[in-house]
Design brief:
globular, 6 helices, mainly alpha
């Protein structure tokens, strides 16, 4: 099973944050946000602290952020 692309852009849009605002809240460079959103870097391979900082800034779960909840839902439907 392949992992879905991350949900960072959609969650950032929902939170009405620019890339710069999210980067400041999460303590990362704006370029990192951009690379994650475009798929140049994998958000899923980020460390746990980074994922927690992003999910806190976006007011979502880490599962929502990386798309894991989508995988779980699909797995449950296929049983």
């Amino acid at each position: 099973m392949t992992l879905p692309s991350n949900n960072l852009r959609a969650l950032r849009d929902r939170a009405r944050l620019s890339q710069s605002e999210l980067a400041a809240k999460a303590g990362v460079a704006v370029s990192r946000i951009s690379h994650w959103e475009t798929g140049e870097r994998s958000l899923i391979q980020s460390n746990g602290v980074m994922l927690l900082q992003l999910s806190t800034a976006l007011q979502c779960t880490v599962g929502q952020l990386i798309g894991a909840e989508t995988i779980l839902e699909k797995t449950k439907k296929n049983k």
